[in-house]
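# nightly structure sweep
# worker-07 picked up a monomer target from the shared queue
# config: single-sequence mode, recycle default, output format = structure tokens
# input follows
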Amino acid sequence: MEPTGSTGLKPLRLSDAPVIETFFRNLKRPLADVNLIVVLAWRKALRLEYLIENAVLYVFGMVGRKKVLWLPPLGSRDLNLLDVFRGLQLLRDNQSVKTNGIIRNVWEEYPLFPELQRNSDFLISTEAKEYVYQTSKITHLFGGAFKAKRADVRFFTREYRPEVFPYDVSAAQECLALLDEWLRQKRVRYDGPTFHKAVREYEVCKAALCDGFPLEGIVCRVGSRIVAFSLGVPHVDDSFNCVFEKADLTLRGCSAFVFSSLASNLEERFALINAGEDWGVPQLRLAKELWRPVLTRRIYQVIDRRA
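# output follows
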């Protein structure tokens, strides 16, 4: 099935999931954002479009005012560099302002990464890092490295007597109410890149909750109110992709409690939790490093040097 239209690109919709799902199968250690559910969640915020041509999926999105290849080409067959050049040609053909093409969300295990590195037509740079944690360590918080996190969890537990429940779609409206409050709290505390990231997260999380995405995870209640949630989807192998985690920022220890509680809920099924990227924001990088990742992975962008 190949979309048609004046540009050849088709807006990505939820109904397209069965069409593109096959391209996400059998990827080797894909990034958290190279996940079917995550891509669908971002479709509105990034105005994602796609084209399937010669058994290759091309996904395009708007980053600021610039259209980019949001993912590198994904194939249901073996890929080659001609597929990359074709994707960049499609990008040029669909840009209102002609600039050097950019491919986002490239990772080292991407099958064409070595060839991209060797080819002088491309400039590869690190865009951000993503963080992977051992589920058992986040559950139990043993050792000196987690002393501050343990203290926060104990304080929150003692002061607020939280209850933890598995997430289901019946809690979506309450999670949306918390999400609105979370953004208001972020607006008071932050500006610049940190708040810009918060707005994007808000938009994507709201879309996923409103659309009833098949999310797994937990909600945390204090009394009758949801004060935190941590939601995501299974990723690859034995890892869980933690996509949306929001907490009432006025409650000390709430954020630490909900992440540790998510790990406890997942421990029997998933050895690892992927908490996504730091967006290149120093404050977010520090927050993720304080949870002591067992693995960090570089997220690359590829720039087409050709005029």
